[in-house]
Amino acid sequence: MRTLAILLCASTVLGACATGPAGERAALSKAAVGPAAAPADALGRDKPAIGTFGFDVAGMDRATAPGDNFYQFANGEWGKKTVIPADRANYGEFTALDDLSFERTHTILEEAAKQPGNKIGAMYASFMDDAAAEAKGLDPVRRELAAIKAIADRAAYARKLGESLRNGVVGPINAYVTIDDKNPDRPIVQVAQSGLGLPDRDYYLKTDAKLAEAKAAYAAYLTKLFAMAGEPNGAARAKAVIDLETRLAGVHWTRIENRDSDKTYNPWLRADFEKKAPGFDWAAFLGAAGVNGEKGFLVSQPSAIAGTAKILAATPLGVLKDYLWAQTLDEAAPYLNNAAVDAHFAFHGTTLDGTPQNRVRWKRGVDFVKQNMGEAVGEQYVARHFPPEAKAEADKLVRNVIASMDNRLANLAWMAPETRAKARAKLAAFRPQIGYPTRWRDYSALTIERGDMFGNLKRATAFEWARGLAKLGKPADRDEWFMTPMDVNAYANPVWNEIVFPAAILQPPFFDPHADPAVNYGGIGAVIGHEISHHFDDQGRKYDQTGRLADWWTPADVTRFTALTDQLVKQYDAYEPLPGQHVQGALTLGENIADLAGLTVAYDAYKLSLNGAPAPMIDGFSGDQRFYLGWAQVWRRSYREANLRQRLLTDPHSPSEQRASVVRNLEPWYGAYQPQPANKLYLAPEARVRIW
Asked: Which of 191, 305, 573, 691 is the most exposed, having the fewest neighbouring CB atoms within 10 Å of its CB?
């Protein structure tokens, strides 16, 4: 199943704040945050949380022509004044809301920790016991490291790789339970390439100086891990591990290849593994993972799996053991003593992302509980911070944007009538999930001990693995969520023909019921449109109204669609955020299509919301101008160079400036801001890409 998360959380994929500290931000209503809600004006009317109409005018750079750099025009002063916090790789509106979400979750967990028998409180308390973690040192992981060193043959090694999956350690071959793309009600085991300690194959295979520096730092980090555990010859062993990973990188598919839903859908029978990928003990591996009895599997990258099996067969057992040993200690390091935590962060946080300082312990504790018992926390978060009226407002916005998308499809000139009818049927079957799941996850079988952080981690990981295995042979649970309500993010899931919007994103600057509608439609409206249109992007369009991967377009429609998307690839290929490093138009294509379509349908929805009345002028801005400012504001983000470099190689989303610049393809933007041919963003009418 391809769950397409399209918005960048601040800490990963996916902020100084334009309007003050995150804790001071107002949320959806007074009921959502109590006294922190937006104040009333002199007449008693609720005011927007940001500025006079929902947009931070003070953050603009009016010296920049909107036609030259719309992102800078809308956000330039904000960028000048924004200082990226020391514990962040980037900072923007997503991160500001993420901070607010963390603060709220922190309060919930601190209160829970004081309650005897409260599981989420006990899990949080176990992480916060820094003294206990320091006293234990590496002891929590030593038994596992010793078991890896004791491996005597390749069958035992394959068995240990399968066992490691249950512990959250993914070696050179990954396996997990997902949904069959051609049978959306059927859970199935997917097998995929994996095993690189650096973020992408390019870090191993390209000769770029910055990537070479990262690879050298990785060698130093692995050497340090060996030394910390008292292992000899660390530098030589680290080099052998990286040589192995370099060979694995050589057979891995690229991120662009992995985007193709058709190419990555490859059914294999159980017997096919020995035939198509010989040299590896598949029975031992799949048996230890608990899935050897399955008859059918999906394999994402057949040539990479075959190549990996061949590489493992040719690699000395001692090197294979060192590789898994290093991966196991690396995975455990954030949950051990300070020396291990610091070494892990120095490489993953500072070297790879450019972040100077690790997050304080309570923030890491919040993340620990979110990752392992997220819905147990989410149930309380929603009760406190997402009132029914907020959900009702969001549901209404979604309906309006869906109606606008349907209108677009109904009048789409380039699509054949029979394909258009099926597209509209797919949209009619659409399933939005807003705020929180309809049924909360049951954690009653998970044992949590207040004084055992690492044990809690292992038990939670094993619990989640067992939950996945329990899905096999049963109908898929379409009510399952793949984010928590506290996530400032959203995703489109084409296999279930749904979009999912967690509660935490439905706040200013994305959505504020007291803001000007133009800003709301340019913010959350365009984001909703983005998610909806993911079901009609270059990959999402391949799934029919039931969510099944199927060929339902006419060949002529595919040809016309591809001609349009090829133009978008070239447009984004030309952007160069760092010297010598361009946006990858093919990698970011799905997100760029969704940005373009999302803005298009949200603009239509905004116009419909006016009921034929003209939009008022506010602070000298027309309604159309405010709409596009709302879009630009949500993409405010400053990056550290290392973080931006990594994103350009690995992230399917374009950087924020280029996301804001998608407006150059839209006719109403030209009417609103009057850019001229001499302006840098100006595109001749025939060069503007319009798809939906």
From this structure: 573
Beta bridge partners of 492: 4, 499
Q: Which two tokens stand for residue 274?
A: 């020995």
In this structure, what DSSP letter does residue 344 have? H
Please enumerate in sequence order all residues whose Cβ is within 8 A of that of 665, keeping only pairs 6 or more positions apart, or say none: 571, 596, 683, 688, 689, 690
pLDDT of residue 389: 85
How far apart, in whole angstroms, are the C-alpha atoms of residue 575 and residue 657?
Answer: 10
Beta-carbon contacts of 619 under 8 Å, excluding residues fewer than 6 positions away, are 52, 53, 57
Specify whether the CB–CB gap between 324 and 171 falls below 8 A: yes
CA separation for the pair 427, 289 (Å, rounded): 38
Q: Where in the chain is the domain with CATH 3.40.390.10?
A: 8-106+365-473+489-687
CB 33 within 8 A of CB 109: no
3 state DSSP class of 26: coil
Q: Return d(Cα 8, Cα 660) in angstroms, integer.
A: 14
510, 512, 515, 517 alpha-carbon torsion, rounded to 10°: 70
How far apart CA 125 and CA 113 sit, in angstroms, is 6
Residues 6+ apart with CB under 8 A from 579: none
177 bridge partner residues? 189
- Own/partner pairs, 36-44, CB within 8 angstroms, 24+ separation: 38/512, 38/514
Q: For the chain (length 692 residues), average pLDDT per consecutive 10?
A: 37 26 24 32 63 97 98 98 97 96 98 97 98 97 98 98 97 98 97 98 95 97 98 98 98 97 98 98 98 97 98 98 98 98 98 98 98 98 92 88 94 94 96 95 97 97 98 97 96 96 94 93 95 94 96 95 97 97 97 97 94 95 98 98 97 98 98 98 97 91
Contact 49, 38 (CB under 8 A): yes
Tell the burial category of 679 from Cβ atoms under 10 Å away from its Cβ (0-12, 13-18, 19+): middle
What the block records as the tokens of 99 is: 């901070």
Q: What residue type is 152 in one-letter code?
A: A
pLDDT at 81: 96
Superfamily of domain 8-106+365-473+489-687: Collagenase (Catalytic Domain) (3.40.390.10)
| CATH 1.10.1380.10 residue window(s) in the chain | 138-335
Rounded Cα gap, residues 358 and 85, in angstroms: 10
Amino acid in the structure at residue 195: G
- Does the structural domain 138-335 have CATH classification 1.10.1380.10? yes
DSSP readout, 183-222? Answer: EEEEEEEEEEE---SSSSTHHHH---HHHHHHHHHHHHHH
CA distance 166 to 469: 11
Pairing label, strands 498-502, 491-493: antiparallel
Rg of the chain over all Cα atoms, to the nearest angstrom: 25
CA-based nearest residue to 285, from 236, 324, 326: 324
Cα 220 from chain centre: 29
- State the pTM of this model: 0.91
- For residue 408, CA distances in Å to 383, 467, 622 come to 37, 41, 24
Neighbour count for residue 406 (Cβ, 10 Å): 17
Measure Cα distances from 96 to 17, 30, 147, 379 in Å: 6, 19, 43, 22
Give the angle 457-459-464 at the CA atoms, nearest 5°.
95
